[in-house]
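Consider the following input, taken from an annotated entry for Glycine--tRNA ligase (Flavobacterium agri).
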Amino acid sequence: QEDLFKNVISHAKEYGFIFPSSEVYDGLSAVYDYGQNGVELKKNIREYWWKAMVQMHENIVGLDAAILMHPTTWKASGHVDAFNDPLIDNKDSKKRYRADVLIEDYCEKLNQKAQKEIDKAKERFGDAFDEAQFVATNARVVEYKARQKEILGRMASGLESGNLEDVKALIEELGIADPETGSKNWTEVRQFNLMFGTKLGASAENAMDLYLRPETAQGIFVNFLNVQKSGRMKVPFGIAQTGKAFRNEIVARQFIFRMREFEQMEMQFFVRPGEEMKYYEYWKDTRLKWHLSLGLGKENYRFHDHEKLAHYANAAADIEFNFPFGFKELEGIHSRTDFDLKAHEQHSGRKLQYFDPELNENYVPYVVETSVGLDRMFLAIFSKSLKEETLEDGSTRTVLALPAVLAPTKAAVLPLVKKDGLPDLAQKIVDDLKWDFNVAYDEKDAVGRRYRRQDALGTPFCITVDHQTLEDNTVTIRHRDSMKQDRVDIAQLRTLINDEVSM
Ligand code: ATP
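Applying the prediction step yields:
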């Protein structure tokens, strides 16, 4: 697993997907740049989301609010007072950690132990195995699960009540060691605010303290009435937005999983008070289906229903994904009640209410939110698509089996040799197809090497122009995953590719 993760990081760099930020100056921790192929993949993921959320829902519209917002926004939202992570330092190694993450990782290990018991039993009993019954009755599995629940419960109440010494005591009681050095010599736990501050204005005296937004959601809330009125929207309706968010994360070691500058894709769905649970269930279900539509494997997703809730929520669940370092949050679905709109009413003195013509009354709508990290989606897709395959002849190939709709380049056109007019003909095909798709032209190296390069970039099709093409206008089209080659007419290419890659 660790090797897989290393491969993901090095492949992403070698093939122009992701580079460390300002690398010539040795990089900036937890900040990354997307290269020539990464930017295309990222754009395609964003579009895939936008299409599913905005284009396919008549009652959802888009928004692009600014990153900088009036500072009172963050007072109202609770971020100034409560957007903190509990941090702890190791006195020997001087390394800093998130106390909650240390404890969660400990619990994940218990989880893995339970899973091992389940897997063993599965093997032993075969088809007759009843997993639900086993989980409910096997003494060891029951014990692991109960232990986890107890630990997470104690952590949550320590964090919630502000009794951070309880959280430290828990870490010591569990014997949690510095993951890098094994030392158990911990400092106190302290709260650390994650927002990046900045200043607006030219002179020091008049400058206004601002924050870079830590989430895109608040831009939606403060525009709720603008959109509702100008778009004559009727509850229930949604506002969707993608954009950058910034958090001064303490732990920043998991590549693009946890970044200090990242992109979110969020949708706030405004509903009648009392109807929120219905829509909460609807969006949990709908969002999971969206993830599954990418074909990365059902077994790689699971729900995690929150028992302890944030100050603004009355129900919350994560969709977790099986990343190279285990199951972790990919998306959050939150029933946020009327907390945000009411808070903005209080702090602004303006009414943020909706007149419901059917009920003939005014109210502050309740909100169900779906929030997914674009970079985390990128990592999920990229890491599950990267494969080392052993072929029939014993050789190996690296293939990035991306969902074709998301692939940065849809087809590469390759002249078999660099002479006899084949390059011109290949270029003509590129010039024709590029109106519809990203296509690449490649004439360097033997054709087998070129196939391998396109496999590693995730290109679903290679189109090879050879001497027969000069005679009958046919080319070979090679499929990335099966490596099968078909002979087809040039005129068929557009339809063939389109069938596979259109969203
Ligand atoms: P975590 O517990 O992993 O820090 P969170 O619960 O704080 O995440 P939310 O505030 O619910 O996350 O943000 C919604 C989504 O934004 C997350 O599900 C995740 O996909 C993404 N996200 C949050 N923080 C980061 C980050 N630092 N880097 C990349 N993506 C992030």
